[in-house]
Write a sequence for this structure.
């Protein structure tokens, strides 16, 4: 396995992920990790990440020199490269301007990192300081217009450094370079698979929990489901899952979740039917942010009441995944919507510790882990569903009648999208019950009924999105089915706005 030593850069987990993609296990640890801990882990190689600091800063992050004599190769990236340079007596210099973005790179094919890389390739740069003179014993292996030393190495010492970022997509041959580091330099075997990750995570959970008890707020979403199954595999009946059914889930969803967890996995599951409580609190409320707040608070209240009944519990499982970790760290972005996430519980509700087995994984890795654990595909490939559920898909106030209309319309939409084979290519799709009614004609009768809006988007990060180009025939079929099968709907519209300016949800 490979250690990614974290110096605070924004791509640290991405580096670890790229390494895993090559079939080599990797984990990220802070640069302050004691050398003895690193030694005992038996890493095949270490990658120093980039970071926001400058080696000239007072108190700039550094490491012990012995780090380089562990007998395993080290690859320094960006800040990591400059640190290596400075520690070995080379010269780092401050540039007047920052070099940022796609940059032409000229590599030396004699370097094991670049053996079959195009001689004139491109890379992604983001730095101000640069390596002016490499330490003695180091050869320069790549240059750019502004960087006399875009890469350097000392093969004898097993030390490699690149100023650019091989881990990002914008360095087209970056993955090749990482592969060379892993296989040619570190001699990794490349036989790691997701199953090794789950096996190891399960063993770690077992050790941490001992004979204590664990609680999980299960939402039925991919992340909390995978986390719950992992913990269940580790500690069996010491885990209790509380599934708060707020009545705002999609059609049949509550039963499906219950079936999988209770019957397939035989997990201790408490399903709380709290629909009336939630609907009561939401009565007459039409402001989206108030809906979110009410649901978030009520969720915590219900969860706490149920948790009390369970008795003494030491640990809480959370399905936090890596993008959540970044998002909650980012902080300063304008608050467009307060994304209450069911399952997101305050940290201070009296547990000894948190168990977050997915903290290092990206969404697609979580899905792979889910499949590995035997979770059914329909759960693993579930599209994202907001914590407040259908409450924010019913514009205006929420009533039982409106909920019933929306559930039926949405179920037809989802079924038809799946039947057309589009369910994995459209990243999120759902029906919205607009608060608008309009005149229609059904048979010989005038109707005055609701308009249902259909929304489908393609996106990779849900920060920006395009509307999905669902074929007209499919849309036509969905429209006529909803009109025919769902009472009180007489008009269907398809939302053709991207995000921005619209958001994905309507509220
Ligand atoms: P928007 O509507 O902001 O949605 O473009 C981006 C993604 O976030 C989901 N979303 C939420 N998820 N609680 C959640 O857990 C919320 O309150 C919430 N609001 C939006 C939305 O479904 C989409 O995937």
């Amino acid at each position: 396995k490979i250690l990614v030593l974290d110096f605070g850069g924004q791509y640290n987990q991405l580096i670890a992920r790229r390494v895993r993609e090559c079939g080599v296990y990797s984990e990220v640890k802070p640069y302050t990790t004691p050398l003895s801990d690193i030694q005992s882990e038996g890493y095949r190689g270490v990658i120093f990440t980039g970071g926001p600091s400058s080696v000239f800063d007072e108190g700039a992050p550094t490491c012990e020199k012995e780090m380089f004599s562990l007998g395993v190769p080290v690859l320094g990236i960006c800040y990591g490269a400059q640190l290596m340079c400075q520690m070995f007596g080379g010269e780092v210099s401050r540039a007047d301007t920052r070099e940022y973005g796609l940059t032409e790179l000229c590599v030396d094919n004699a370097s094991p990192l670049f053996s079959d890389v195009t001689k004139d390739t491109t890379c992604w740069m983001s730095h101000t300081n640069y390596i002016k003179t490499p330490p003695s014993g180091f050869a320069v292996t790549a240059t750019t217009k502004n960087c006399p030393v875009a890469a350097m190495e000392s093969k004898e010492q097993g030390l490699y450094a690149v100023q650019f970022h091989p881990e990002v997509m914008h360095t087209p041959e970056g993955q090749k370079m990482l592969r060379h580091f892993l296989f040619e330099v570190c001699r990794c075997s490349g036989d790691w698979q997701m199953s090794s990750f789950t096996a190891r995570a399960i063993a770690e959970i077992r050790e941490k929990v001992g004979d204590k008890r664990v609680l999980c707020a299960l939402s039925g979403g991919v992340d909390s489901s995978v986390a719950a199954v992992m913990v269940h595999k580790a500690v069996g009946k010491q885990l209790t899952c509380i599934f708060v059914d707020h009545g705002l889930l999609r059609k049949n969803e509550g039963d499906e979740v219950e079936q999988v967890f209770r019957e397939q996995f035989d997990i201790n599951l408490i399903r709380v039917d709290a629909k009336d409580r939630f609907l009561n609190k939401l009565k007459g409320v039409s402001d989206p942010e108030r809906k979110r707040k009410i649901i978030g608070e009520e969720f915590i209240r219900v969860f706490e009441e149920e948790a009390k009944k369970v008795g003494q519990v030491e640990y809480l499982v959370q399905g936090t995944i890596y993008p959540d970790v970044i998002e909650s760290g980012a902080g300063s972005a304008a608050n467009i919507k307060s994304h209450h996430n069911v399952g997101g519980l305050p940290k201070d509700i009296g547990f000894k510790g948190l168990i977050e087995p997915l903290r290092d994984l990206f969404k697609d890795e979580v899905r792979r882990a889910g499949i590995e654990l035997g979770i059914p595909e329909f759960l693993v490939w579930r599209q994202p569903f907001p914590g407040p559920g259908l409450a924010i898909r019913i514009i205006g106030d929420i009533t039982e009648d409106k909920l019933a209309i929306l559930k039926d319309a949405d179920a037809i939409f989802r079924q038809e999208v799946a039947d057309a084979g589009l369910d994995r290519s459209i990243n999120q799709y759902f029906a919205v019950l607009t608060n608008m009614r309009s005149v229609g004609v059904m048979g010989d009768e005038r109707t005055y009924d609701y308009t249902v809006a259909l929304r489908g988007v393609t996106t990779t990060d849900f920060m920006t999105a395009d509307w999905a180009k669902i074929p007209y025939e499919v849309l036509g079929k969905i429209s006529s089915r909803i009109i025919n099968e769902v009472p009180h709907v007489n008009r269907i519209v398809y939302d053709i706005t991207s995000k921005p300016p619209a958001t994905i949800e309507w509220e």
In short: The mean pLDDT is 93. Residues 292, 337, 339-341, 384, 386-388, 428, 462, 499, 503-505 surround xanthosine-5'-monophosphate (CB under 6 Å). Residues 194-380 form a domain with the Rossmann fold fold (CATH 3.40.50.620).
